[in-house]
Design goal:
Radius of gyration of chain B: 22 Å
Largest sheet of chain B: none
Strand content of chain B: under 5%
CATH class of chain B: Mainly Alpha
Number of strands of chain B: 0
Number of strands of chain C: 14
CATH superfamily of chain B: MetI-like
Structural class of chain C: alpha/beta
Strand content of chain C: 15-25%
Largest sheet of chain C: 9 strands, mixed
Helix content of chain B: over 70%
CATH topology of the largest domain in chain C: D-Maltodextrin-Binding Protein, domain 2
CATH architecture of the largest domain in chain C: 3-Layer(aba) Sandwich
Number of helices of chain B: 10
CATH topology of chain B: MetI-like fold
Helix content of chain C: 25-40%
Oligomer: heterotrimer
Number of domains of chain B: 1
CATH class of the largest domain in chain C: Alpha Beta
Largest interface: A-C, 44 and 47 residues
Distance between the termini of chain B: 35 Å
Order of helices and strands of chain C: HHEEEEHEHEHEEHEHEHEEHHEEH
Shape of chain C: globular
Chains: A mainly alpha (230), B mainly alpha (251), C alpha/beta (301)
Number of helices of chain C: 11
CATH superfamily of the largest domain in chain C: Periplasmic binding protein-like II
């Protein structure tokens, strides 16, 4: 009923799909990796901390985030972050947080829970003796972590961190529920406007597939290289 | 501009007049569980088949299995959802496509959602099944052959019973994932728990109450599943075997 | 410990019900402090607020909004005030207004008493009736024809609520579907997933006119209720509301509104250059003569 496959609609809209949509998706993914790994590492350290309160808090946070769907978390943060912002800086009214910033915060905080578990495994993969050696050398906790444990933890976990990142790249498409123009959002806007959803959704699937398959291919190569070094 | 908390909202009637908001959420939970369970059956059966053929000696069967896993793992779930819902019926003969599209709600969105989640999760289950089988000592398969069992018999009586037991923990987390992932079905109109919370927010304007309730329900379901599976794991555990460490991220 | 503060705070707040989160000091102050006013727009509310061929939001409500923004600029004496645009859907617009993500919503939002408890509205700028669109071939025209049919509407609208009420009150046995936004809902009728789409009549005219085969569709002659549209703003902000109301009243009294109306309802509009040919209704004429922000449908009958 929609006639033959129309490549024209894809070609015609390429600039919009990539300049607007893909740029959003990639920027969001990049920022969320950096912040997600940062907070994830902190959470992992907290979870392994001998401070009961810290460890309990981190465990609670990680388990909570891991037991609710991302879609729900996206809604939560989009509506709640402005209030949290106001509360943190003590402002009298909700702080204005745009759709993009809100998405960045959502994905960073949500992925942090997943990165935290990976980093915890990474930290635990470093023999305890090295930590004691660090202390024996007179290094404090932060120095031991920064100079001895974390570099190794990162290297050991790199392939898994990257695999998780590919998954996150796919998951950013869920910002669709907020009517944000990420890559899929751009595709669906054109699909709905022109009634060309067969073309647009097949094309979107193809683009995600190519990017992710290339990504996982690189991860596998990296995994082999690391395996040799060790 | 203060946020007006109103926790009594759950006992108020919805505009449909058919029940309270709490009732709406519970109906949503029911659809979440129905979607997840129906999809889980597909995922287990299909995942076991794909996982098994990836470990068989046949090269082309293994390639086919690998191709399936790569295809379904490298396209975002939401895009797959749209493909099943919007695109798939257009590729069928017109009468069949129309018949699918015109199924009375909620089936017209429930069926694609279940197929989508089932085939998506099957790829992940397949990965676990493959890892489980490969974690078994090679001698087991040889023993099967030595006993005169055919290849299918070896899988059926020797490899799979143990493999499934040792991959129970990763399967548990896949089952938890399918429950969470069923929320993506709201984009094609399944009124599952997250959608019910969103609908409650639209009608009652009590955003945070609605989402808090949904969050609590998800956590409770999660904890319930974890405990049930732990019990099952203990019952079927094979002494001396622990689960293989298949690292797959996921949500 | 200090480093943990932000994640701690973030997470702690997410689960503790913090009452009375913020005190309003007014949109005007906020706009002045940030140098930016944020407009919420819609993607497919033709011709009020929708994306044109360049994916830029345009429309009748957008034009009115820009007039209001001009008034804000003047009031604050900030000629270089920045205008930020954020897409909203029917289900996100009210929470986003409450949490300060948008300052002014320029879409196709019904002003009713219930919503007025959460947000506020400027002067009415359009009056609609609920109707439904269906394929001509399905021969649906009266409300009774919907009995037992699959009908779609947009999540978060007053229309889907009306549909639900109709179902309960008259035992219609309608299968109700909800879609994310108008374009998606219309697509359901176009692809045969739903028999009819119940929506504000003017939006239906816009969607049909912009569809691939407008001749395939029929908009019901039967209608349900009457409802006024207005710009949405935050509640309890009399200062800002006054600026909005005054700007709109000036627009109406000066007759400038008729030019804007003509541009969107009686001339060719983007993206396809279609003319909706929808003359000013009598009730809207009365509103332009005597501007009102009443949420009461009876005022407009």
């Amino acid at each position: 009923m929609f006639g033959p496959f129309d490549f024209g609609v894809i070609i015609h809209n390429l600039p919009y799909l990539f300049k607007v949509g893909m740029t959003f998706t990639l920027t969001l993914t990049a920022l969320a990796i950096v912040l997600g790994v940062f907070f994830g590492t902190l959470l992992a350290m907290m979870r392994l901390s001998s401070f009961k309160a810290l460890s309990l808090f981190a465990t609670g946070y990680i388990n909570l985030m891991r037991s609710v769907p991302l879609v729900l978390v996206i809604f939560w943060f989009y509506f709640l972050v402005p209030y949290i912002g106001a509360w943190i800086i003590g402002a009298s009214q909700p702080v204005q947080v745009g759709a993009f910033m809100s998405s960045v915060i959502t994905f960073s905080m949500f992925e942090a829970a997943y990165y935290a578990e990976i980093m915890r495994a990474g930290i635990q993969s470093v023999p305890r003796g090295q930590v004691w050696a660090g202390y024996a050398l007179g290094l404090n906790y932060w120095q031991t972590m920064a100079k001895i444990v974390l570099p190794q933890a990162f290297r050991n976990m790199l392939p898994i961190l990257l695999t998780q990142t590919i998954i996150m790249f796919q998951d950013t498409s869920l910002v669709y529920v907020l009517s944000v123009t990420d890559f899929l959002g751009a595709a669906s806007k054109i699909a709905e406007r022109d009634g060309r959803f067969v073309e647009m959704y097949v094309f979107a699937a193809l683009v995600y597939f190519v990017v992710c398959i290339a990504g996982s291919f690189l991860v596998r190569r990296l995994q082999r290289r690391i395996a040799i070094v060790r | 501009m203060n946020y007006h908390w109103n926790w009594k909202i759950f006992w108020q009637l919805t505009p449909e007049g058919t029940g309270t908001y709490l009732h709406t959420l519970l109906v949503g939970l029911m659809w979440t569980l129905a979607t997840a369970l129906a999809a889980w059956i597909i995922a287990l059966v299909l995942g076991a088949i794909v996982g098994v053929i990836r470990t068989t000696p046949s090269k082309w069967a293994a390639r086919l299995g690998n191709g399936y896993v790569e295809l379904f793992r490298n396209i975002p779930l939401l895009v797959q959802m749209f493909l099943w819902y919007f695109v798939f019926p257009e590729f069928l003969p017109k009468a069949m496509g129309d018949a699918i599209k015109q199924m009375p709600p909620p089936w017209a969105s429930f069926v694609p959602a279940v197929l989508c989640l089932g085939t998506f999760t099957a790829a992940r289950v397949a990965e676990q099944v493959r890892a489980g089988i490969q974690a078994l000592p090679r001698g087991q398969q040889m023993a099967g052959t030595a006993l005169g069992l055919t290849l299918p018999q070896t899988y059926r009586y020797v490899l799979l019973p143990v493999a499934f037991r040792i991959i129970l923990p990763p399967l548990t987390s896949e089952f938890l994932n399918i429950i969470k992932n069923s929320s993506v079905a709201l984009t094609i109109g399944v009124i599952e728990l997250t959608a019910a919370a969103r609908a409650m927010q639209e009608f009652s304007f009590q955003v945070f109450e609605a989402f808090t309730a949904a969050t609590i329900i998800y956590v409770v379901v999660n904890v319930g599943v974890v405990f049930a599976m732990r019990w099952l794991e203990k019952r079927v555990a094979v002494p001396g075997f622990i689960g293989p460490a298949v690292q797959g991220g996921g949500h | 410990m200090k480093k943990f503060r932000i994640p701690l705070l973030l997470a702690a707040l997410a689960f503790i019900a913090a009452p009375a989160l913020a005190q309003d000091t007014g949109t005007l102050k906020k706009v002045k402090d940030t140098g930016t006013i944020t407009i919420g727009y819609r993607e497919a509310s033709i011709p009020f607020s929708y994306l044109d061929q360049n994916q830029k939001p345009v429309g009748y409500a957008m034009d009115i909004c820009y007039k209001v923004v001009d008034a804000v600029k003047q009031k604050l004496n900030m000629p270089n005030l920045k205008v930020a645009l954020t897409a909203v859907t029917p289900s996100t617009r009210i929470p986003l207004m409450a949490n300060g993500t948008i300052d002014l919503e320029c879409g196709s939002t019904t002003n009713n008493a219930e919503r007025k408890q959460q947000v506020d509205f400027g002067m009415t700028y359009f009056v609609i009736k609920y109707r439904f669109v269906a394929k001509k071939a399905s021969k649906l025209d009266t409300i009774a024809d919907l009995k037992g049919q699959t009908v779609v509407s947009t999540a978060g609208t007053t229309d889907i609520k009306a549909l639900n009420e109709l179902n309960t009150a008259d035992k219609m046995g309608i299968n109700i579907l909800s879609a994310n936004d108008h374009a998606a809902a219309f697509l359901m009728v176009e692809t045969g997933r739903a028999k009819a789409f119940l929506m504000d009549d003017i939006l239906l005219y816009g969607l049909v006119a912009n569809s691939k085969n407008p001749a395939d569709f029929h908009i019901s002659s039967a209608s349900l209720g009457v409802e006024p549209y207005s710009l949405m703003l935050r509640k309890d902000d009399p200062e800002f509301k006054k600026v909005v109301d005054d700007a709109m009243t000036k627009l109406y009294k000066s007759g400038e509104i008729e030019t804007i109306y003509h541009k969107w309802f009686l001339s060719k509009i983007p993206p396809k250059g279609i003319n909706l040919d929808f003359p000013i209704s009598d009730s809207l004429k009365r509103v332009f003569a005597n501007p009102t922000d009443s949420p009461d449908p009876n005022v407009y009958k």
